[in-house]
Amino acid sequence: MRAIDAGILICLDCHQLNRQAPGPDGQPCSRCGAPVYRRRPNSLARTWALLITAAILYLPANLLPIMTVSSLGQGKPDTIMSGVITLMQHGMLPIAAVVFIASILVPTFKLVGLGLLLYSVQRRQPLSARQRVVMYRFIEFIGRWSMLDIFVIAILVAVVNFGRIASVEANLGAVAFASVVILTMLAAVTFDPRLIWDNTESDHDHE
Hints:
The protein is an alpha+beta fold. The chain is built from 6 helices and 7 strands; from the N terminus they run ββββαββααααβα.
């Protein structure tokens, strides 16, 4: 039996368990006073909106230059992928691997993973609740590494500024990439994981 079936609601701010009161959804928490809902209002719609926006920005994030490294007045803008290739050509394979994983694989997995999770919950597709929970927790875990590229660029722009001798400049691709990361993080936050358990009976999780 789920907690909601027993009339128990959890506060998402302080995690206090509250007995469901009669009346409209959104009763105040008995501990902190925050609104307590059976499920987050419009969780799926908000998460879909954030996810679709992130997917649209994912194209310019990878196609536009993310930064320009100049040395002695010469330099060319690099996209994420061309930067990885440049690092590989200079023999810096470990750094190239980290950049590729953090900037290409992680955002792609988050977009695809969140999309599959939302579709599975909304359309009641044959994914068990256990599989959905593992996917959701993994998406939350890898989300913290998505900003690695942006942190590196921000540090380089602040530190490497020697005029015509050497400089690093952030480009529009960095803005688009940062937007993708932030939007996917917000999408993971707005998704209500309790929705995973709402159709467990149809997923045969009791078997």
